[in-house]
Amino acid sequence: MPPDLQWLGRAFVFFGVILSGFGLVLLAGPKIPWLGRLPGDIMIQRNGFSFYFPLTSCLLASVMLSGLLWLVGRFRG
């Protein structure tokens, strides 16, 4: 492969790993009973109306993803 296209190959591998991770989360998500039902997740149900915002679950996912990216950056150099 020409050296000027190596960045494209690395980008495809990176996005493939990211998509695989999202796929695993979607497959395993329903099997984790507490995911989306943490204290602090907002759920409002009224007649004919339902609102759900997983605030705490989003914060937890953000902290875990930030930690993972920090570790990757730490080992990369």
If you had to describe this structure to a student in words, what would you say it looks like?
- It is a single chain.
- The protein has 77 residues and is an alpha+beta fold.
- The chain folds into two domains: 1-31; 34-77.
- 58% of the residues lie in helices and 13% in strands.
- The chain has a two-stranded antiparallel sheet with strand order 1-2.
- The longest helix has 23 residues, at 6-28.
- It is elongated.
- It starts with 5 loop residues before the first helix and ends with a helix.
- The model has no long low-confidence stretch (mean pLDDT 84).
Overall pLDDT level: 84
Counting helices, strands and paired strands, the structural category is alpha+beta
Tally the structural domains. Answer: 2
Provide the succession of SSEs. HEEH
Termini gap: 25 Å
User: In terms of per-residue confidence, which ranges show pLDDT below 50 for 5 or more consecutive residues?
Assistant: none
Beta-strand content estimate: 5-15%
Shape from CA axes?
elongated
Topology:
Layout: H1 6-28, E1 42-46, E2 49-53, H2 55-76
Antiparallel strand pairs: 1-2
Briefly, what is this?
With 77 residues, the protein is of the alpha+beta class. The protein is built from 2 helices and 2 strands.
